[in-house]
Every structure is written in C-alpha cells, then in structure tokens.
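[Archive record]
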Amino acid sequence: MSGSVLIVAGLPGVGKTTVARELATRATRGAHLDTDQIGEALILSGLVAPGQEPAEEAERQLALLRRNIADLARNFAEAGFDVAISDVVLWPELLEQYRTAIGLPLRFVLLTATEDTIARRDAARDKHVAQQWAHLREAQDGFRAPGLRLDTTGLDLDETVDAIRARWDDALI
C-alpha cells in the first residue's frame, strides 16, 4: 500500500499552498506538507526565515526543514497517503535534493501565472509576500523543470486541480 508524492511549486503568491491543500483534501488519504507552515509551527524560537539575516542561518534552517519534509512525505506515502508538498522549488538542484531525499517516485507541478494575477491573488490573502519575492520570476522563467508546468492565469482553484489530475502522468519525473 503505497501512496504518491507530489511537489506543487511556484512563486510566492501563485497559489501553490491552496492547490496542494486541495489536492490532498480530495485524495482518499491525503496529507499536505507546507514549508512555511511547518517551519513556523515547529521552530518556536530562533527561526530565521528566508530573506532574513543572518542569511547563512536562514539557508541552514530551510535545508533542515526540507530534509524533514522529505522524510515526512516518504513516511506518509509508504503508509498509503497521497502527499502534496507546497514549496518554492525553482532550481534543478533543489528538485534533485527532494527527489533523492524522498527516494520514491515523484511528481512535480510548477504553477505559473502573470505578475498581475499573482499580485491580485496575493492581495486577497492575509499574508502578502508576492512583491518581496518577485525577483524569483527570473529563476522560474529559466527553470526547465521536468514534470508539468501549468499556467494558472485564467484558472480558478477547481480548474487548476482538475488540470493537474487530468495530466497526472505528465507530472511524473
């Protein structure tokens, strides 16, 4: 009884957390692992978030967080859960680190949208981060990731989830 592991990636504000959570909710046995939520929930003191100083400590904590997410994903999948991870994975090295650490078949979906769409989505939520991380658009645009690249500019949540489910096999990397 083995589940699946899917990484839903994209720029902050594109909707990856919402999409990953919805995919996990619709699964028979689903788990959602969100890097922001897990980091903020588990590190009770001394948290240095990405973009904060000292940068070396922020990177060290983010690497630790991702190793633990990979372990959780593998454990849940081996117990028969379909796992959806939401994270900003815009570099081949990071995707390879996840693939190696999880050690199971992996699906990858990179969500994209226009700058205006991301700004509108970001404005409609409590946590506003899109502008702070807009510089990552260049990394996203240059990332020729395996798996599924999906422009969600004209899609709502249901349409996005349906598009991913319809192209599930395309996401396998």
In short: Residues 5-171 form a domain with the Rossmann fold fold (CATH 3.40.50.300). Strands lie at 5-10, 30-34, 82-87, 106-112, 148-151.
